[in-house]
């Protein structure tokens, strides 16, 4: 693939192919990954793992991804590199009928049989919005905390996503996320060497397709996108803002975000927002020391705790160990800046553990840099509470901190869209009833 006169590197091409989608995108990926590009025949002839035939090998939680992902040398789960989000509406009015429910389950089950459950195969979740549950006469179980999406700061004005369902596809292989979408929607005869016989085609209308990526090297290759200052994003940064995120000690566990009672026991809730990022300002206005202070804390900056993108931190951002979460107001007065991670660590649970399991990734959808901020938590109230901490109202206009200036990363981030979903346990992932 080329971009004007420039020949794209392998990684750039894979990312660009996911964004492009369709048969052209898929052919480009398969070609680069050395896979047969012809969709004919069931001889896989590839080095891609075969699917998971036995249901017993599959977890009962849709969000059980960590043990099926790679881990880095510090024990942090490494997120899959390529992501596709599919927002879709059920075609009918009112409650979903049993035929469509069975058709969807067969299609999701076939995806598992086609791809191994893992980041080297395919991981996916299917979530349902409050708007979906409005189709039923009975209300959604009150043991599920799933409000309609709302603006969560006085300075934001997001649009709200209200599709019936959201499918999140993730894989280290760009071809898998593209091919799985096309298999699901009945656009392919074979996928990963298996015949496609079950699809959700005809039961849903696709209303939006979003894409993204995370992993060392992927963001740096996108300085061709508007708003990415030339050469500014560190070569090995996994995300555009230049730092590693998602350390094991700074994430909620899969257990702790799991709904523990009621009809959706074993499920979780998912928040998805689209955040646009101002990278010109982030990299040109601020020094590295200021960036470390705004992302982590002034203590992290002064003591040089973060080297490069932060690999040296191991499995913890050190916000707890350094006690900086207790110094937010003091830092506002004394240092004139408060850090993002520092502020967010103030909303941990009673046991001192983070409430959110963040599975966000970078994007250049629509030619703009941003983050598809996707998080899992037991209830959406956990997300709202955490987001309130990010707003830093209590330190706005204290010392040198403004509503957004020097208030973590608020100045560089704009919330464009928000949506909330229930991820039922796997056994109820296909058009669940509300209770
Ligand atoms: C452009 C968007 C964002 C970027 C680049 C970003 C980046 C980071 C980084 C580098 C850390 C420190 C490393 C770590 O703990 O993993 C962190 C921590 C964290 N972030 Fe963000 N973040 C973003 C948006 C958000 C949003 C929207 C929320 C939720 C409202 C959020 C919630 C958290 C939480 C809960 C922590 C961990 C705090 C703790 O240790 O208890 N982040 N983020």
List keywords for this structure.
Dimeric_a/b-barrel; 16 strands; metal ion binding; 435 residues; iron; six-stranded mixed β-sheet; DUF7405; alpha+beta; Alpha-Beta Plaits; binds protoporphyrin IX containing FE; single chain; Tat pathway signal protein
What does this structure look like?
- By secondary structure, the protein is α+β, with helices and mostly antiparallel strands.
- It has a domain at 2-44 and 61-144 and 154-231: Alpha-Beta Plaits.
- It has helices at residues 10-20, 22-32, 98-114, 130-133, 174-184, 279-285, 288-295, 298-302, 328-335, 340-344, 380-391, and strands spanning 2-3, 6-7, 70-71, 77-78, 82-90, 123-128, 159-160, 165-171, 190-191, 194-195, 204-213, 268-277, 357-358, 361-363, 370-377, 413-423.
- Strands 7, 12, 13, 14, 15 and 16 form a six-stranded mixed beta sheet that branches. The chain has a four-stranded antiparallel beta sheet with strand order 6-8-5-11.
- A hairpin with a 2-residue loop joins β9 and β10 (194-195).
- The structure holds protoporphyrin IX containing FE.
* Unreliable spans: 38-44
- The N- to C-terminal Cα distance equals 49 Å
* Ligand names: protoporphyrin IX containing FE
Instruction: Write down the overall geometry.
Output: globular
- Total helices: the number is 11
Output the CATH class name of the domain at 2-44 and 61-144 and 154-231.
Alpha Beta
What does the radius of gyration come to? 22 Å
Residue-averaged pLDDT:
94
